[in-house]
Design goal:
It is a single chain. The chain is an alpha/beta fold. The protein is 36% helix and 25% strand. The N terminus and C terminus are likely disordered. The structure holds guanosine-5'-triphosphate. The site of guanosine-5'-triphosphate has 23 residues, from α2, β12 and β13. Guanosine-5'-triphosphate binds next to α2, β12 and β13.
Length: 513
Amino acid sequence: MYGNEMSIAYENRVFNRRSGLSGGRMGCTLVTGFLGSGKTTLLKHILNHRADLRVAVLVNEFADSDVDSLLLNSTNLNASFNLSTVSLTHGCGCCDVRGPFRESLQRVVDSKHNFDCLLVETSGLAEPDKFIADLEAVGIHLDMTIAVVDAESLQKILSIDIVKLQLQHVDLVLLNKCDLATLGQISDAEDIIEELTGGAKIVRSQFCKVPLDLVLDFGKIEAQPEVKEDVSVPAILSHEALPKMTFQVANIGNTYVGVSSYDQADDQSAVASKKRVSNEMQRGSSHGESFSSSTFESETPLSLAVFQSTILMSIRSMHGLLRAKGILWFVEDRDSRFVFQWSGVKRVEAVSGGPWESAPKSCLVLIGTDKSELESIHLQLSKLAEPHKEIASCIGSKESAQNFSMKVAADGRFKDPCLKQESLVVFGLKGSPSRGIKESQLNGALMRVVNGKGSIFLTAVTSGLDYDLQILLDEDSDPDETWNEIRTAAGAVISKICKNFCPCRSDLTAHVH
Ligand SMILES: Nc1nc2c(ncn2[C@@H]2O[C@H](COP(=O)(O)OP(=O)(O)OP(=O)(O)O)[C@@H](O)[C@H]2O)c(=O)[nH]1
């Protein structure tokens, strides 16, 4: 825990609780912000640094899959807190006042855990105001509403009405992803936010790393009496958002494909507030009249080679795609569970944090404005996941991979590369922990820069402090071109990170080179 993350008010609260002083209403921090801005990242940051604070978390998801719970790894998280996880399905916090959202809130209030505070992550397409009545109804006090904003992409998404609505009644704006944005983008975003919020506090952040007393109102967290832990009560409730209309379901072997969407014209059961959001979207969006989400699930591993050469290419060419996220299982690296993220200005990440803890499967959610684009990706994914495709899928090129490895090995800024599965090269820039440069910073940034250009798809595998990148050289890959692109991107990343994080830049640059 960082020294400055806990305020005196927090310490007082812990002291009071330990002294058995009873308290009043539970406080809530409502986290809003457009799709992919960094809301879950903020939640993870708070949970990782919460010390002994009893935090209940409620996640409201637009898609009909419980993917945020997977990405938050809530089962593990709760296990480490000695708590159980409950996933809630159906209903919507922002549209159904008597639905599961209020029930979940009531469960948090009634919980024997005596939570100190509640965090609610709204879906990236929800209006935060809609949650307030429910909080009040169950006796939870709204301490603050925080909007997380992607500094790099704010200007591009301003035409979407919900982006502006989400900024209307907030107390604090985390201007996030400042590592990706230029100084010009950051200051333009600050001007826009100031105008839209009427002067809310704005704090710049990278990966939402901010002191906890900025985002939790410790002053208002009342002292709660200590109680015996009841592990049957959840700390993290993953709450799926909108009742969906399924318009296509295919069943191929063990692969289940469902496309669902929220479409006002189709969904007569939508309640008034949801309809209003949709109508406002219609007016504000240049694409179609509503948002759609599609969920792909497969218990057959996908070919990484085909995924990068066809699916990713198609995804990149989609005009209406706003967000993609999920867990991927690849034939070429069966042991790794890749978390796939597509957000903001076509930023793509696929990071594996370790092996599978349950039966491997892929689950990918796409959210966008063009239903037909989503359907088309669906079809491609379902073909890719057909069991007989698995054998034919290893189409990497050993020769190209060896050629590429030799080039990496000759560049002193990189660690020694190795080959995995013949055509999969594992490589990465060297970090320098003693000088404050982490492998994860360098290689994470390198992955984002290279993947952002669109012709190469890097995945990352992490273990402890190690952060390796993987590239699959397929039959069409030109090792020289590939290496040139990665080498150039590496130079840019090193220079930016050295410039941002260390005053004695020349020293660090010399070391890394
Ligand atoms: N480079 C960079 N990436 C970030 C930062 N904050 C978050 N991300 C990445 O952005 C992606 C989306 O972050 P999430 O926290 O899942 O965003 P979200 O708002 O919860 O997304 P939805 O729930 O789908 O609306 C992930 O790949 C994060 O790792 C940041 O400050 N810099």
